[in-house]
Amino acid sequence: xxxxxxxxxxxxxxxxxxxxxxxxxxxxxxxxxxxxxxxxxxxxxxxxxxxxxxxxxxxxxxxxxxxxxxxxxxxxxxxxxxxxxxxxxxxxxxxxxxxxxxxxxxxxxxxxxxxxxxxxxxxxxxxxxxxxxxxxxxxxxxxxxxxxxxxxxxxxxxxxxxxxxxxxxxxxxx
Length: 174
Prior knowledge:
Radius of gyration: 18 Å
Structural class: alpha+beta
Distance between the termini: 19 Å
Largest sheet: 5 strands, mixed
């Protein structure tokens, strides 16, 4: 269940700024529900080293989008899955074909390797690779990506509805 929406200026917040928001939010939740299991879900702004380390140190599960980069695209598991996905799409003459895979990844600024899930979609227009980083264990990559993470899209749609119905333009829903 979504708990908070944070609207910020059209700029990328720093890792310290995001960690501060997360820390304050979790503190308030814990004040009322000290034993509730909390899973943070967010876009690439949340996949900062400061936020990931804070969540892990405080027992907060997380699932965050990752900005694309060449290291992730060139990961052997992701690259092999992308090639297979493109071949299946072409052989079956499909408009689009989607695959998922998981690997471990350690960005240069991270202190440890983490579980990364890739959603790979081959279409007639090309390849689209989206990645997420998560501390969640036991779920299949498809489940984590399509249901657990993509539920964030519903929250973004609620924010877009807020903008259109209340005419509150100039607010970011990215």
